Amino acid sequence: MKTTSSVFSAAILLSAASAARAASDNQCFDFTPMSSVSNYLGATLDYSVADRICCHNHKFAEYRGYLAAPEVDFFGRLDPSVETVFYDSVCGLPLFIAPRGRTFDDFKKESLKHGWPSFRPEEMISENVIIHDDGRMESVCLSHLGHNLPTGGVDRYCIDLVCMAGEPLSAGDERNQILQYMHQEQIINATELNTTSYTSSAEQYSGKTSNATAIIISVAVVGLFLVVVAFVCCEKPGWKRKGDEIQVGSSETSTSIHEDDEENEIY
Ligand SMILES: *[C@@H]1O[C@H](CO)[C@@H](O)[C@H](O)[C@H]1NC(C)=O
Ligand SMILES: *[C@@H]1O[C@H](CO)[C@@H](O)[C@H](O)[C@H]1NC(C)=O
């Protein structure tokens, strides 16, 4: 009897859990970006791009350099003398606050160099953003945001402008339902965020995601290089395999890994 009832309640728990998981498989909880995205800060953003990239996509991005397009001019619309809070385009939760721990000019230069708004760990509202093991980033509202592409050993969050172009939801907005799926105590809503006292916990994790992939790629590149070196050695009978030459080989290898990193930075 006892066994049957506990099996029964376990079954109920399981189906509740899978229902929750099924609901959370749907990006943006099946909602769409708020309409104000299309005139974010007075810019003209393409609403259909926001809907596609943030709510129906895990891989692709708005085009590189979109933030600097004449109709967008992202940095021309920010006040360089203050920190700006950036909100999820669908659920209005705060996601980033910038510039923090660096100048406005650093924030601008880094973002323009890479072609997407780029944030650093101090600038992320860590409670509201998920970084997956493969570097993909989404908000707790399951809006796709972009990717974590660590630069210089520090996380760099390369974010689609169209997905961080929201504002706090008004009371009557149907998107408020999204927040009901969440544990309120684990997120920070727009009203709760105190920008003066807020400290991100993202620095604790910085540089730790995507490392596995980087190591696997490095090992593979080094391995391939050694195979090529061995092949060339065997092809040239006169060539001696001395310790020195292998040293030279490995320093060349590390140079080429850095070049690979640079390429990876392009979203
Ligand atoms: C924000 O969170 C606080 C604390 O959980 C809650 O009391 C408040 O109603 C929330 N505000 C909104 C707009 O959801
Ligand atoms: C925000 O935090 C600062 C510093 O802790 C505090 O002085 C201020 O009263 C807080 N503001 C609000 C609105 O709670």
UniProtKB/TrEMBL annotation:
<keyword id="KW-0472">Membrane</keyword>
<keyword id="KW-1133">Transmembrane helix</keyword>
<dbReference type="InterPro" id="IPR011057">
    <property type="entry name" value="Mss4-like_sf"/>
</dbReference>
<protein>
    <submittedName>
        <fullName>Uncharacterized protein</fullName>
    </submittedName>
</protein>
<feature type="region of interest" description="Disordered">
    <location>
        <begin position="244"/>
        <end position="267"/>
    </location>
</feature>
<keyword id="KW-0812">Transmembrane</keyword>
<feature type="transmembrane region" description="Helical">
    <location>
        <begin position="214"/>
        <end position="234"/>
    </location>
</feature>
<keyword id="KW-0732">Signal</keyword>
<feature type="signal peptide">
    <location>
        <begin position="1"/>
        <end position="22"/>
    </location>
</feature>
